[in-house]
Amino acid sequence: AQRVKLAKELSKSSTGQTLYILDEPEAALSPMRMMRLLCYLQQLVNNNSQFIISTHSPILMTFPNAEILEITEEGIHSVDYKDTEHFIITKRFMDAPGKMIESLLN
């Protein structure tokens, strides 16, 4: 439902100067669709909109000039997307999928 609402919002000609709060908008999106979502987000940012996005997607975390806030037991702090657990684990898997699968299943 969230993606349908965002799609409707993007189709409006007067979209702009809006604060969007999105909870895991990448759910059920393919990597290509997530990249398309980045393009839509950029269009809205270009129209002075802002976003607060809860995500586990390393793809969405790469959005230019985004501030990534990580919530841990020690509190909330700003991090580079490359230092997030989600990025690190995804990169390790993509760099050596066979090794990761073997480690997980044995």
Written description of the protein model:
- The chain is α+β, with helices and mostly antiparallel strands and about 110 residues long.
- About 45% of the residues lie in helices and about 20% in strands.
- It has five helices and four strands, in the order αβαβαββαα.
- The strands form two sheets. It has a two-stranded parallel sheet with strand order 1-2.
- Strand 1, helix 2 and strand 2 form a beta-alpha-beta unit.
- Helix 4 crosses helix 5.
- The radius of gyration is 16 Å and the shape is globular.
- The mean pLDDT is about 90.
Quick synopsis:
The chain is α+β, with helices and mostly antiparallel strands. Helices cover 46% and strands 19% of the residues.
Jot down its keywords.
106 residues; two-stranded antiparallel sheet; 5 helices
Strand order of the largest sheet: 1-2
Q: Oligomer, anyone? A: single chain
Query: Residue share in helices?
Result: 40-55%
Sheet of most strands? 2 strands, parallel
Average pLDDT number: 89
